[in-house]
Amino acid sequence: MTTGTVSPQDGQQALLSLRGITKSFGAVDVLKGIDLDCYLGQVTALVGDNGAGKSTLVKGIAGTYTFDGGTYLFEGREVSVTSPKAASDLGIEVVYQDLALCDNLDVVHNMFLGREETSGIVMDETTMERRAQETLKSLSVRTLKSVRTSVSRLSGGQRQTVAIARAVLWNSKLVILDEPTAALGVAQTEQVLNLVRWLADSGLAVILISHNMNDVKQVADSVAALYLGQLVATVRASDVTTGQIVELITTGRSGELGLPADREVLR
Ligand SMILES: Nc1ncnc2c1ncn2[C@@H]1O[C@H](COP(=O)(O)OP(=O)(O)OP(=O)(O)O)[C@@H](O)[C@H]1O
């Protein structure tokens, strides 16, 4: 068994590299010097107990929050991501748990929500429909009968699929998924996990926030464990058992992995 950290594969440059990231809310230090690397073609599972700092880290990556300190590198360049638009412009999209879909709109309009294609001053329905269909096809999504179906008629798994398709419609490079299977049954979970794997296999970098260790073991390449605002380990998913990930999440260390007991950030 290997210990501690995952090194870059074949000298591949990380798409996203965070170094020494800090964030406080008032007197509370929520992120205490996070180092994280995410690679194209890989699913990085971000795990941690409630309150460990996962959402805060992701919101900082996505420009909803601005980090207080540290370095944010994207494609090897230091960048300043101070708004969601700045993150989108880099190719970073987040699918939050609430999905933010409009029930009264169809799949096409949900996928283009706020970024509608126009021809003059009218919406270009034909182009939007074609692009929506192409994107769903590229994701091998076959469970949607029509892109003109209202999302209110879709199952939980189909809604998740539409939200993910919306995220990849914009030449995304990094897609962040916040608990995508939390509300799903067994079959739909399987479908969504297949889609998550597919995103990475088609060349995107994926960050998957999850409390479900089976999901993590099934689709993740690496596991980044947060404990009380510190990233205590980044390990290859195939190198750890579910029990060891749980130990990292709940205690910030794993004796068997040879991680230090003082919970220092490894790297
Ligand atoms: N806007 C805020 N103001 C003050 N404290 C906050 C704010 N957002 C988060 N926190 C605190 O930061 C800590 C980390 O919260 P965060 O939501 O990032 O954790 P999490 O790992 O995503 O948890 P969960 O799994 O429950 O979603 C918590 O102690 C939380 O109370």
Give a structural overview.
The chain folds into two domains: 1-89 and 204-267, 3-Layer(aba) Sandwich (Rossmann fold), CATH 3.40.50.300; 92-171, no CATH class. The protein starts with 15 loop residues before the first strand and ends in a 16-residue tail after the last helix. Helix 5 (156-168) runs parallel beside helix 6 (186-201). A six-stranded mixed beta sheet has the order 6-9-10-3-11-12, sandwiched between helices. 30% of the residues lie in helices and 25% in strands. It is globular, with a radius of gyration of 19 Å. The chain has helices at 54-61, 84-90, 107-111, 125-138, 156-168, 186-201, 213-219, 242-251; strands spanning 16-25, 28-38, 43-48, 69-74, 77-78, 92-95, 118-119, 122-123, 174-178, 205-209, 222-227, 230-236. Strand 7 and strand 8 (122-123) form a beta hairpin. The model is unreliable at 1-5 and 260-267 (pLDDT under 50). With 267 residues, the protein is an alpha/beta fold. The chain has eight helices and twelve strands. The structure holds adenosine-5'-triphosphate (ATP).
